[in-house]
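Posting this for the archive.
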Amino acid sequence: MKVSHSVWRQAQNSPKVYRNQSAIENGHYNTEFMLSHEHIKAAALMQIAKNKSITFDEAAKTCFIDGISIQNTTNLSMEDMRQFFGESIQNAINASKKSLPSFLSIDDGGHVILISILPTTKPNEVSILYNNSIPTGETGKHFASTLVNYLKQSGINVRDNKYINISQDQQLDNCCGLSVASNIENIVCNFAIGKNINTLKQHLFNPANHEEKELYYQNFGYSFFRALNNDHSNQVENLHSPINSYNISEHVLEELIRKYRPRLKDITTNLKNDKIIADLYTESKSKLTTLNIYSCEASKDTQIPNLNGKTNLTYSRIGEQNSNSLIMVQTKDNEIYFDEGAKNKFTGLVFVDRLNSKTGQLLESKDVIIYKNGKVIDFFEGNQGVSRLGQLHKFQAINVGQNINHLYTGLTATSSYIQPKNLQRNTESLMAK
């Protein structure tokens, strides 16, 4: 069995009840539930796979993750470190010698923190990071201090001869395990040997308030346990996004839109839209950054018309929890709808695959929706098959006679949603700044 399959199976077999609190209650993630070390590892790798657009198996090869319990300890001797945790530490060091980041989730029986062991540009040297979702907490600090001395005694240099504390307030109820998994994901996806490790903190989840924490952890937890509970024989291999992630600057996107809009609006070439849209999509992938899609619930501010009578609705959020995100819903008939609420400030370009109405298969042909500050300002329709957009007629009626300079000034983000061929929604891809 592959290591990745073993990780996933161990997470599935790990208890889904913590101190009488179930992971999922009434169809929602329960923030009073605390992840096991097995859950943390699987959740982190799942997020890495989504973020880096790779398979779960490939994500398992990007880092080393292990869990350690230090319950009922207030200090650790060198001998304790060697006897009880020596194997895990050695595996982490071996990974660092292969230029891979290593992570130890440390629990004291009621709280979990993260210790990262990161390779540097110097052979036989590592950096040690300490991350606690409760910045004032002391959990695991004695372990981190002893680890520094243990490594030095073992002939491994520790940069600055101490651990670096990058803790920030991420705690909500018992979501410390999700915090650890999230931090592992963000460090793996933003770490590079030689890069100033102090900059890693800016990439970690940094909620502004309680509401942001609650929304983030409920979405993350629900997404993870839904994947865990709805597993199929090939589920692990399919936990990935097919689009690579890239950076973008405002002027690059403006140039991209200026280049393709006149061609797509030329009535003499409208039968060639699929080819032009395909070129736009290909160039977008080479210049734009990927946004993930997260499971979510419709909020009171979400306004999606024409859903009366439709059942089995699946709500998702395109992008992170900030102003540049977009709520969408998919029906059981695979129609796609987008939020029209006043608080929607999404700016971006959304690709949606069209459908072969006879076979039910998705096509390469795509519809393209351009948003600016939450408003649809332009729409390009593919040629083949039928559209899956529930708001198609609204999009078709968009006034396209506006001045290009006015429309695209300040347009800085692009997104892409690609539906899987079996018509089952998964966490696929969006491109944005």
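Residues 108 and 139 are 7 Å apart (CA to CA). The chain has a mean pLDDT of 79.
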